[in-house]
Amino acid sequence: MLNENNLVSKSKTIIDLKNLDLNLQELKVLDVYLSKINPKNIDTAKVRFTKKEYCDLISVNSNWLKTKRLSKYLQHLFNNSVVEWLDDEQENFKLHHLFEEAEYDKTTQEIILECGRSDYVRSMFFDINTCGYIKYALKNTLYLKSTYSIKLYLYFLQNRFRKKWKIALEELKENILEVSDIETYSQYKFLNAYILKPSIKEINEKTNLEIKYFSIKKGNRIHTLEFTCHFKDTNELINGEFKEKDIPSISSNLTWDEIENDMEYGSLEYVIAEIQYTFKSVNKKEELNKAELGIIKELYELYGGRMMVVASREASTYEKYSLYYMKELMKTWVMKGYSAEDVENGKR
Taking the model in full, what pTM does it have? Predict the structure, then answer.
């Protein structure tokens, strides 16, 4: 049975994939797939759907859908590949299937779906702590009726810490909505009427977010948009999905040797211990409070533990040690396209 309250853990690498030819229904199939796997266990890569579940997602009556037609729908999903760039200049690349295998058993009326088996694709689904991820209840995207609504919802969720921010109109069109090459949307009035207004209205009505926006002119043209993002239930922790019990309790009395030798580098426990140790050393703060621990957990999910470790150490070097400064560092690195490995190797 499809459970709308299941959690989707979606890596930044999946969110940032460009030029995928996934339609609205297939985006929902992807989210349901993510809600059924355990991102910490690669053995869960094969996911079972009932035929009715799958048909409901693609808006087709399962009683009328013949097996040959079902195979055509699955073929469209399988035609999507992702690009792995093999060098910084993006001159060499390798293509990988996002989904590798599907099997249908007419007797049981079950579809078994498996994501791509290459290390590159598997890391998108099962190494999410390294690349960062966001987490949300499936119901937040399951009932949206536009691909643009889903893209904007994910964009707003990624920027949830900022509460209020600005983005250049052209950047929004090119990198978030992927409509910069559609002539109709070269004029803001059409972009606003056909995408922004209806999508944000739908997000406000059907998700856990409340979004407001207004346009900013440069000369006679709309140049920038300013967004304000709030969560509807203020009792929830930031994304409303994880609970306080998910945050490990780490002693503030650990020595540096104990952190280095007894904890896994880049794990949430390691990150909390390092930040707590540094706060104690630099800011003379004995213990992190619940709000700070919640922010660390969210940053960990968004950017990954390895990048957080680098940000923590760089922040302490420049004597600007705060969670806000760490967040700004990581946001800048991600905007430049740097991975955790890049910043560990000194890219800035």
Answer: 0.70
Q: Which of 141, 165, 186 is the last residue before a domain boundary? A: 141
Kindly state whether residues 153 and 135 are assigned to the same domain.
no
**Backbone dihedral region for residue 15 (phi beyond 0: left; psi -120 to 50: alpha; all else: beta):** alpha
User: Is 238 within the bounds of a domain?
Assistant: no
Tell me the CATH number at 112. 1.10.10.10
Per-residue pLDDT of the chain (348 residues; tens, 9 = 90+): 677 788 888 888 888 887 677 888 889 989 999 999 988 889 999 999 888 888 888 778 877 878 888 888 888 888 888 888 888 888 888 988 888 888 888 899 888 989 988 998 898 899 887 777 888 888 999 999 999 999 999 999 888 767 788 899 999 998 899 888 888 888 889 999 999 999 999 999 999 889 999 998 888 888 899 998 887 764 444 343 444 445 667 777 778 888 887 778 888 888 888 888 888 777 666 677 777 888 888 888 888 888 888 888 888 776 667 888 888 888 888 887 788 888 887 777
Same domain, 178 and 207: yes
Task: Indicate whether 117 and 19 sit together in one domain.
Answer: yes
For residue 40, count other CB atoms closer than 10 A to its CB: 11
**How many domains does the chain fold into?**
3
Sign of CA dihedral 244, 125, 145, 181: positive
Closest CA to 34 of 97, 124, 105, 95: 124
**Is 6 exposed, middle or buried, given 0-12, 13-18 or 19+ CB atoms closer than 10 A?**
middle
Neighbour tally for 168: CB within 10 Å:
14
